[in-house]
Amino acid sequence: MLAKILLIVALSLSVSCFAESGGNKSRRLLDSNDQRHSSTDTNQQKQQQHSDPSTKKRDSQSTQEHSSDTKPSMVDYCREHTC
Amino acid sequence: MKIKRVTNLASTIFLSYATLAFAVPPWDHNAQSTWWAIEDTSQEVPLRYPFAECGVGKHQSPVDLAAANINNTKPLSTLAAQYEIDTPTFFNSGHGVQVNTSIGYTGALKIGEESFPLIQFHFHEPSEHVVGGKNFPAELHFVHINEDGRIIVLAVAIDVGDENPLFQTILDNTPHQAEQKNSNASIQFNPASLVPALSQGNLNYYTFAGSLTTPPCSEGVQWYLLSDVITISTDQLEQLKGFYSSNARVPQDLNGRSILSTN
Fold first, then answer.
1. Which of B29, B59, B95, B129 is catalytic?
2. Residue pLDDT, tens place only, A6-45
3. What is the pLDDT of residue B172?
């Protein structure tokens, strides 16, 4: 019985140590998949424009709207106030 | 009918949000010593005092240049006003004469390798920054904000001298009623015409950490004050006063700040 308990404790410790060391390897503030790259967005837009010229104007408008959406609100504030 | 109701409700919510987002309590330059105490009664503490930073901030603007330790030994980034022609909006902000650049305007202030898009510029009478307690007749602030939210203000002292044609265009197109905009003027100009010695390409300046000079007096603003001044005529200065007079904040304590200079 005592041997079983020791075996369980030993296994638990080894599993937790393995998990920690594995976690450190891939630990980052932001995972690359979570990052929003403007360059990627731009490339995708370029591809869309290339594949379908008729949507060029619409995509351009969409890009403008997107860029204005992501601007800091301070930009809008300073257009309405002295700053 | 149902769709219309939903649309109306959505519009109301959006307008309310937009109003709240930009709603700030009224303030006045005459009562600037108590800006920090102005209350927004719709909010709880600490948001109840939205302008507290005007009173408790340690890096406030403007400053008296003569009172500062000026360091001109450090190598500083080159400064270039890379503004472009724009069709701006003329705005009477209720506190000053202001010109907003158009959405998507790409003209920017280049500091070293970094670019900061120009958002708006406005005028103060008299100047806010002083030298030995002495004001200039007026001061021009170019406000730039980049993608990461950093605010850079390029300040230009205005002296009385030759008439400035671009400044006259601004005066002639700014509404006289407070909080009114004139976006239908369809007038094109380059704000660079209001920057001195642009042809030299490399502007001489003083730089220091500061704040907005109007409520909420937010800190984290980097100031670049040009060594050279521009001029407007006596008549133009009187016209500016016709809009707003004494819309300048008094110099604030340096609290140990040094000023770096290219001079």
1. B95
2. 656 665 656 555 455 544 555 676 666 766 665 444 444 4
3. 98
Distance, CA of A33 to chain centre? 5
- Residue A49 Cα to chain centre, angstroms: 24
Q: Residue A11: its pLDDT value, please?
A: 58
Taking the Cβ of residue A8 and every Cβ of chain B, the question of whether any pair is shorter than 8 Å is answered with no
Q: Which residue among A75, A77, A82 places its CB closest to the CB of B96?
A: A82
Cα(first)–Cα(last) distance of chain A, in Å? 74
Chain A's closest residue to B100, CA to CA, is: A79
Active-site residue, B124 included: no
- Do A75 and B119 make contact, defined as CB atoms within 8 angstroms? yes
Structurally, chain B folds into a number of domains equal to 1
Domain hosting B41: range is 3-261
Query: Given B103, B104, B212, which is nearest A83 (Cβ)?
Result: B212
d(CA B93, CA B174): 10
B96-100, B150-154, B202-206: range with lowest mean pLDDT: B202-206
Give A-chain residues touching B212 at CB under 8 angstroms: 83
Evaluate if residue A51 carries a pLDDT over 70.
no
- Mean pLDDT (chain B) is 92
What CATH number is attached to the domain comprising B125? 3.10.200.10
- B199 has pLDDT over 70: no
- CA atoms of B156 and B141, how far apart (whole Å): 7
